[in-house]
Design brief:
The complex is a heterodimer of chains A (about 230) and B (about 325).
Chain A (H helix, E strand, L loop, with lengths): L3 E8 L7 E8 L4 E5 L6 H9 L6 E6 L2 E2 L5 H6 L2 E4 L11 H8 L8 H10 L1 H5 L10 H13 L5 E5 L7 H16 L3 E5 L3 H7 L2 E6 L2 E6 L1 H6 L1 H7 L3
Helix pairs in contact in A: 3-6
Chain B lengths: L1 H29 L6 H21 L10 H29 L4 H23 L12 E3 L1 H8 L7 E2 H23 L1 H11 L1 H6 L4 H26 L6 H16 L4 H19 L3 H7 L18 H15 L11
Antiparallel strand pairs in B: 1-2
Helix pairs in contact in B: 1-6, 1-9, 1-10, 1-11, 2-3, 2-4, 2-9, 2-10, 3-4, 3-9, 6-7, 6-9, 7-9, 10-11, 10-13, 11-13
The chains are: A alpha/beta (about 230), B mainly alpha (about 325).
């Protein structure tokens, strides 16, 4: 039983279901990666877990609590952080203001968390008073992840954190994500770069057409010839 | 020249800037053009006038300053109340229904007529002069004596109050938007609504704060305009055009732009309709002084100036001088 789990989720936009009894979950301190071809419902599954899409069937559990009916904002308050794929920073606000907005729900002193985020992403400290919209793609992603970390979540959900960044930056982002996981946060992410993502994943989910096709540890999936052939390009 | 163009221009520009700031804030946060803004200004001015009369009737005044300044806080409170009530009764319904901006716009036009009618019902359609206190802070004769120049400079009390108030209000507004938690959350909401929700920013609260600021700005702008000229309910309908022109010229949604736009429109209006007779009489050799007023356009064309600038800006730089969409 995972710490955060979306169990047997069926959901979709309008009348038709996109997810069919799809299950994804993650343990504390571990990285779970959702991969699959385009249109497999990866992002939809994330939205379903975060409550941005109502479930027709199934449930979402965190700890031992049923959070199926909580709104996304309430899930944030309950220790979930979400980094959307697009528009994930406030472009007209400075880097520091972005992080402060991340901590909006916190009424206590969050300067410690701010320091932690700056330690994790030193480049943000350098550019703290620059507008986030002026940063490069990789730096923006760091702002986005940093913003989500400001609430000190127990679970961090990332929707394609490396979309549109160069391979070097991607490696660095993955390193940071591993570092975040080591601090005890559960990380659930969707990735296009399936090979690299699975290589750092404790658990991997291969989704096809909205249902689970393969579920195993990251390394086992990488070694699985069927997965390699169908999804990882041999 | 400074007498009849620069000083009034500064005052008029400040009034437009304050009005345009309100329009821009509503646009930035609620994402619609609030056509009722002129009438909200009018309503604010009316509330202030009513309180001023009540104060005057009790013999309370501020000496050289107009009594209206004392009444202004009450007027602001009433206007904020109006904004919050209209939001609760009208706009909230459309917000929850996630209506198109066009619908909002038409709704605000409806509200504009409703408020306009209400105002005329309460205070009547006539001119109201409520400016007491000293009329001039610097009289033409005194200026001549002071500087030894042979042309006078007169500054009306209302003009200086307008400029000073506008400067203070703008400083406070920018401090609020850039330094306070609520102000930053407003900018964040205006920048990216979905992400603001994910960050736990309560949209209803942001909207409420926006209306409070808008109400205050509108009441101040309306009162200052009324003090400077005179209060007449119908003028606020006409004022809507230069206000929107200011907001759009500066880049709607951008507070800096609203201020810049306000002054651009104000000075253009004044310089185009300014009577250059005296200036030319000075510059040209004696005897060549023109007979007419030498206006580029008659003052009746004042409003066409806003229109022209608006059209030119929209043709050349549709996003406005300071391209903006967010606060």
């Amino acid at each position: 039983m995972s710490f955060l789990i979306g169990k047997e989720m069926s959901a979709g936009y309008g009348g038709t279901d996109i997810l069919h009894a799809c299950t994804i979950g993650v343990e504390q301190g571990e990285i779970a990666v959702v991969v699959g071809p385009n249109g497999a419902g990866k992002s939809t599954a994330m939205k379903a877990v975060f409550g941005m899409l109502p479930l027709r069937e199934g449930s979402v559990l965190m700890g031992d609590r049923d959070i199926t009916h909580l709104k996304p904002q309430e899930r944030v308050r309950n220790g979930m952080g979400f980094v959307p794929q697009n528009n994930n920073v406030f472009t007209s606000l400075t880097v520091q203001e972005n992080l402060e907005m991340g901590a909006f729900i916190r009424r206590d002193d969050f300067s410690d968390t701010l320091t932690q985020v700056f330690d994790l992403f030193p480049v943000l400290k350098e550019k703290r008073s620059q507008a986030a919209g002026e940063l490069s793609g990789g730096q923006r992603q760091q702002v986005a992840v940093g913003r989500a970390l400001m609430t000190q979540p127990q679970v961090l959900m990332l929707d394609e954190p490396t979309a549109g960044v160069s391979p070097i930056v991607m490696d660095e982002l993955f390193d940071r994500i591993i570092e975040i996981a080591r601090s005890g946060i559960a990380i659930l992410m969707v990735e296009q770069n399936a090979k690299q993502a699975l290589s750092i994943a404790d658990k991997g989910y291969v989704l096809v057409q909205g249902s689970n096709r393969y579920t195993d540890t990251g390394s086992a999936l990488l070694a699985n010839p069927n997965v390699r052939k169908a999804f990882l390009g041999g | 020249m400074s007498n009849f163009a620069i000083v009034p221009g500064l005052a008029y520009g400040s009034q437009l800037a304050l009005g345009a700031l309100g329009v821009t804030l509503v646009y930035g946060v609620l994402r619609f053009s609030n056509f009722a803004h002129g009438e909200i200004m009018s309503f604010g001015a009316m509330a202030t006038i009513l309180v001023t009369w009540a104060l005057q009737a009790r013999g309370i005044n501020l000496g050289p300053l107009p009594t209206a300044l004392l009444a202004l806080p009450v007027g602001i409170a009433i206007t904020i109340g109006l904004c919050l009530v209209t939001d609760r009764l009208v706009y909230r319904y459309y917000r929850q229904a996630k209506t198109q901006p066009v619908t909002y716009l038409i709704v605000s036009v409806g509200l504009m007529f409703l408020l306009g009618g209400l105002i005329r019902f309460i205070i009547g359609p006539n001119d109201q002069v409520f400016n007491d206190g000293t009329r001039f802070i610097l009289k033409a004769g005194a200026f001549k004596a002071m500087t030894g120049l042979d042309q006078g400079l007169a500054i009306k009390t209302s003009q200086s109050i307008t400029v000073v108030t506008a400067v203070i209000i703008v400083c406070v507004l920018f401090w609020f938007l850039n330094k306070t938690r609520a102000g930053k959350s407003m900018r964040a909401y205006s920048d990216n609504e979905d992400l603001a929700l994910l960050s736990g920013i309560n949209p209803e609260r942001v909207v409420m704060v926006t209306w409070i600021i808008t109400g205050a700005l509108a009441c101040i702008a309306g009162t200052l305009y009324g003090l400077d000229k005179s209060y007449k309910p119908f003028t606020f309908l006409q004022l809507l055009l230069p206000i929107f022109a200011s907001a759009i010229v500066g880049g709607i949604g951008n507070p800096f732009g609203a201020i810049a736009g306000g002054f651009v429109i104000a000075f253009s209006e004044l310089f185009v309709t300014f009577a250059y007779k005296k200036v030319l009489a000075y510059l040209l050799p004696s005897g060549f002084a023109p007979d007419g007023l030498v206006q580029l356009l008659s003052t009746d064309y004042k409003f066409s100036v806003s229109f022209m600038i608006l059209v030119i800006v929209l043709l050349i730089k549709p996003t406005g001088l300071f391209s903006g969409r967010t606060l």
